[in-house]
Amino acid sequence: MVGFDVVSLFTKVPVEESLTLLSQHFNKDILALYKHVLTSTYFRIDGQFYEQTDGVAMGSPLSPVIANFYMENFETKAIKQATLKPASWYRYVDDTFVIWPHGKGKLTDFLNHLNGIHNNIQFTMEIEDEGDLPF
Predict the structure, then answer these.
(1) Whole-angstrom distance, CA of residue 27 vs CA of residue 58
(2) Which is it for strands 42-45 and 2-6: parallel, antiparallel or unpaired?
(3) How confident is the model over 103-117, as a mean pLDDT?
(4) Residue 77: CB partners within 8 Å, gap ≥ 6?
(5) Which residues pair with 126 in a beta bridge?
(6) Consecutive H or E run containing 24
(7) DSSP state at residue 103
(8) Residues 6 or more apart in contact with residue 86 via CB below 8 angstroms
(9) Tell me, what DSSP letter sits at residue 132?
(10) In what order do the strands lie in the sheet with 123-127?
(11) Which of 30, 53, 93, 129 could disulfide-pair with 26, CB 3.0 to 4.6 Å?
């Protein structure tokens, strides 16, 4: 058993790529609404205003939906392109539970494969210890 965790998923979701994926499923009017919401992210810290330039906003009700939409595409591509594939891959938001039948020696190669797909999307890995996996 192995767990892979995406580092800072919401703030790392590539917005333009997500919009491209969304354009395959929604008409231009709905896509324009998505674009407005995803690219108009402002926040204030210590009285100073900032604009988030990439990623989806933490706390936005739309962020989990877009992150999940993006990650479904990402993981489909990642598994399809992998030389060795997991027996099972289950993801909840940014955490995955994986059954890896190829031995511990090949896990680092698979982690490197995952981390090489997109600069923004990087994973950490935890391997089971005595049948336990923090998940």
Answers:
(1) 26
(2) unpaired
(3) 96
(4) 117
(5) 3
(6) none
(7) -
(8) 2, 79, 98, 99, 100, 101, 110
(9) B
(10) 88-92, 95-99, 2-6, 123-127
(11) 30
